[in-house]
Amino acid sequence: MMCAFCIRNLILRAALEKVYFLCLQSWRRGPVRLGSQPWAKMSLFGTTSGFGTGGTSMFGSTTTDNHNPMKDIEVTSSPDDSIGCLSFSPPTLPGNFLIAGSWANDVRCWEVQDSGQTIPKAQQMHTGPVLDVCWSDDGSKVFTASCDKTAKMWDLNSNQAIQIAQHDAPVKTIHWIKAPNYSCVMTGSWDKTLKFWDTRSSNPMMVLQLPERCYCADVIYPMAVVATAERGLIVYQLENQPSEFRRIESPLKHQHRCVAIFKDKQNKPTGFALGSIEGRVAIHYINPPNPAKDNFTFKCHRSNGTNTSAPQDIYAVNGIAFHPVHGTLATVGSDGRFSFWDKDARTKLKTSEQLDQPISACCFNHNGNIFAYASSYDWSKGHEFYNPQKKNYIFLRNAAEELKPRNKK
Amino acid sequence: MTICQFFLQGRCRFGDRCWNEHPGAKGASGGRQQPQQQPSGSNRRGWNAANHRYSSVIQPSSFSKSTPWGGSRDQGKSSLGSFESGTSASRDREFGLSQNPFASLSPDEQKEEKKLLEGIVKDMEVWESSGQWMFSVYSPMKKEPNISGFTDISPEELRLQYHNYLTSNSLQSYLNSIQQLIDQWRKRVNELKTLNTSTKVTLLSDVKAGVSQVAPAFGFGSGQTSTFESAGFPVNNISSDNARNFSFKPSSAFVTAPSGNPSVFGSLPAFGAAPSASITTSASAFGFGKPKITSASSFSFKSPAASGFGSPGFSVFPASLAAGPVGAPAAAGFGSGSSVAGCGGPGSHSNTAFSKPSNNISGNSNIATSLPVSNGCIITDNVLFTPKEQLTAEELEQFQSRKFTLGKIPLKPPPVELLNV
């Protein structure tokens, strides 16, 4: 039984959504006058007909093709196999450059222009699938970690890649650490070690033992978080030299899959979000005033969101990324959806339509205007569902508006 | 503080926020308040209400209702083939040496346990029906240690193996090992869903065990992944290609060992069939209900042998050691313990492929394997029960009588045979 007010709101909202949808359609169809669209003021997706040539092939596709239901920009010449990792260039580099590592053993680099056009720039190969990529802080080097147990440093200016790290098992994570008194590359591997490399030397600066295989990690100086197999969770502090800060008992019941650090209002890392294979994300603060209340978990990437009686399908959370400006987060899952959340207001901001493939990776650019997500098979259903012929996509979405935090009541 | 009248009647609105005292509930609930955004069903249910609500515990009948449904859904989800992660031995049971396992369980503790068990059952049902990733560890409540019997394998690892097997043309062995993993996972989930006494007991000990066993268990977990690949190798006898990734060089010693050592290699897919049979029998004898127990138990015992395994990164050895402490199979286990030591040879090869530290580890473990042989008799499975042989006549009498007589109360836990739960 709804009051007249609610009904009126519903009608208004429906109408509003229709308007937005129509705007979106017309915007997609061709050149638009600057300023007439709400998002035109953003630098990314300005106007120009670059769109049509930007590789957005979905216009010609049939309506039953669900590979891009959100009608986002498709990156041209996307990798031939599943994309394991995405990373945008840091603010020190003018423009936006996207790096993607894939299971086809390659790392590709595109320039993403403000018009939305993506220009493939360069590519490097490993001898094994690439599991993680990251940029150096000055934007001149890209570090890539691969199943061939090595990590390489790719100098973009010279387009040369040299090996900088060696492990005894595939290297799962790689991060660049820039401290006031040192800089190094941190690699986490399935050989249960965390190694820190000065790129000039073939011996690691430091080796830290992990309780189990490293599954995911994140670094925001001076904090680093590593989540391992068997629900291991360790926080490191990187000041002076990396050392273990605390081992945390996992707030989740199942295998850890992805982790991302978030910052507080003073731009200091203060906690992290941890995603598991069980469609759940835990928000955990390192030193909260009230741990019982401040730390929480939420369910996501499940079918039947609200209907708890029917059995749900539960999907793994493949990636978590925090918006660099708003502090809201995005999660992508095996169900082929991405969702935006506001962790402070503890609400969901948006969930996308379902893509026909899982979304295996996601990333924000340095100013938070672009949200990139990769649609490719993540092996969540085993080898039977692997189709090497299926095309893998990377989509770019304008993220400035949709990730604005909800106003707290 | 005043006693809360409403709590006594079973209807205190404030629960643990209540300013009055809730007799019996305080100790139990004190430590565990983590209100979650999305509480997982039964846990929350138990905590908010006063504990006396346990009278409305979910009865086993609900399990049977949902199982056929769960089963049929699995048919639907047969897309996963039978993805069952065995990880039996790998997951290493953690047998906390609970000091007084039979100290009178206060009603609150009992309720905690019941709630825990309910939670586990529910989670198992959800896990099976939801099509979520199978090869994951599980713990009944956050901050609790993992329940044994599950391995952690990430999708990337599985995929990498698939690619490797593909290139070396041994896809069938990959499929076989996957199949076995799935079978083992399924079995374990079913075990947990239909909790019988022995499973319950082992679960509870798992949960109480504490987190310290993490390291060695992990070591085995990783060993697990390598061993299960290697399981494929004896089948195929492909050595060179496999050397590339996580591979044990196939060795005859490796193959023969499991026959004598039920626990360790129970996890290996290739050996899944034979050992599991022996495991179940030994399990029943000791009321463990779960074959893989043995490996875990060694870690919780602070025995010299076990402490040798305190360092992480072991694959094969801890499990074999684990076999040691467990009563009768112990003898067999040690018989195989020596063969396992033999296994140490090839095992170390594989470990080198894996990680450098393991080289040293294999050295250590070889030494360590000799230890439990002597200790094995001492450290028996007396975590929860003592075998009858160990009890003196007096103690036996005490256990058998209806009531303990003061001054003669045995200090050891009762033998499992005398329990009638």
UniProtKB/TrEMBL annotation, chain A:
Keywords associated with the record: Cell cycle, Cell division, Cytoplasm, Mitosis, Nucleus, Repeat, Transport, WD repeat
Main location (coarse class): cytoplasm
Gene Ontology biological-process annotations: cell division
One cellular component (GO) term of this entry: nuclear envelope
Quaternary data: Interacts with NUMA1 (via N-terminal end of the coiled-coil domain); this interaction promotes spindle formation in mitosis. Interacts with NUP98. Interacts with MYCBP2. Interacts with USP11.
Family affiliation: Belongs to the WD repeat rae1 family.
Name recorded for this polypeptide: Rae1 protein homolog
Naturally occurring in which organism (per UniProt): Trichechus manatus latirostris
Phylogenetic placement of the source organism: Eukaryota, Metazoa, Chordata, Craniata, Vertebrata
From TrEMBL, chain B:
Annotated membrane topology: Peripheral membrane protein
Major location (coarse): nucleus
Full protein name: Nucleoporin NUP42
Ranges of Low complexity composition bias in the record: 31-45
Keyword Zinc-finger on entry: yes
GO molecular function: zinc ion binding
Location of this chain's protein in the cell: Nucleus membrane; Nucleus, Nuclear pore complex
Chain positions covered by the region annotation Disordered: 24-110
Domain C3H1-type: 1-25
Polar residues bias locations: 53-69, 77-89
SMART domains assigned: ZnF_C3H1
Zinc finger (C3H1-type): 1-25
Cited function: Required for the export of mRNAs containing poly(A) tails from the nucleus into the cytoplasm.
Cellular-component GO terms for this entry: nuclear membrane; nuclear pore
Entry-linked InterPro entries: Nucleoporin_NUP42 (IPR051767), Znf_CCCH (IPR000571)
Naturally occurring in which organism (per UniProt): Trichechus manatus latirostris
Keywords: Metal-binding, mRNA transport, Nuclear pore complex, Nucleus, Protein transport, Translocation, Transport, Zinc, Zinc-finger
Superkingdom of the organism of origin: Eukaryota
